[in-house]
Amino acid sequence: MSGLDRAQADNLSGLRILVTGGAGFIGSHLVDTLLAQGAAEVRALDNLTNGNHENLVGQNANERFTLVVGDVRDDVVREKALHGIDIVYHLACLGVRHSLHDPIENHDVNARGTLLMLCSARAEGIRRFIYVSTSEVFGTAQYVPMDERHPTWPETVYGASKLAGEASSRAFFRTYGMDTVVVRPFNTYGPRSHFAGDSGEVLPRTIVRLLAGHRPVIFGDGQQTRDFMHVFDTVTALALLAQGSGLAGETLNLGSGAEVTMNALCAAVALAVERPDLLPVHDSARPGDVRRLLGDPTLMMSLTGFAPTVPFERGVAELVAWFRASAADNPDQVELMEDRNWVALEAV
């Protein structure tokens, strides 16, 4: 990206942007960032299955922000959300654990929902469609670091459905000349991250358990690795994709380029919580659990100038402080978690 392109990407003045899944963890932070960078209008489209109003409370009085409550599969809702929009960030989806007990709905929301969004965005004449995918499309690493050409062998229907969304996004670029960009965040963490129910993520779940005086739970031997990036860095990178040349049709990895084992994760949280005595409990390995992830973010960095800024240990310490403060308003956090092995609740 040239210096001029980078300057344009840092200034979103005049742009009207839609964020689907905008009341969720990453989506709400992206909304905040886009508004802070001067977007003329930001709309969030969310059915509030995983997202919630509390994530957007800071924008309640902002005249440049609108929340549209509804499903991306609803024709009327999509038309309302997309009218007059320049840029779309498509994050709305159902997660990996949900796909194990309801693969049909998971695929319908993630794959068909994306295709419907692409069709409607094309009809509306959107300037750019940014599809926010996931590192789960890769499955377990066959080599590291994993670049964009790494084979895609997803372990779950979630990963498969997100890969279908990628394929549709690239097809709209090749078939219709639509400006689409696919970006694959690896493992994003930070404030507002999910710990409850089947959308709960490993780092916030571990923090909640340790803060409550419970030992963390590791499924398997704990040598599984993930590539963690703080949500501040993730949304900073995503915001750079709104403008700039040389991005149309690209597929980009978005990770830190460093891997952390689950054993090291538990140790880092225990240190931040000041409870090194709470050693992990090891349970049987989970089905569909990816063994190793380590992304190669070189292409993303070269095209946008992006570089992560939040070290993992600092990010963990800050997230512990955030959960400690939020526990005062929600003292029953442990009871809301599902620390059990992934199981299919019904036959597929």
From TrEMBL:
Domain NAD(P)-binding: 18-318
SUPFAM superfamilies tied to this protein: NAD(P)-binding Rossmann-fold domains
Record-linked Pfam families: GDP_Man_Dehyd
Signal peptide limits: none
Protein name as it appears in the record: NAD-dependent epimerase/dehydratase family protein
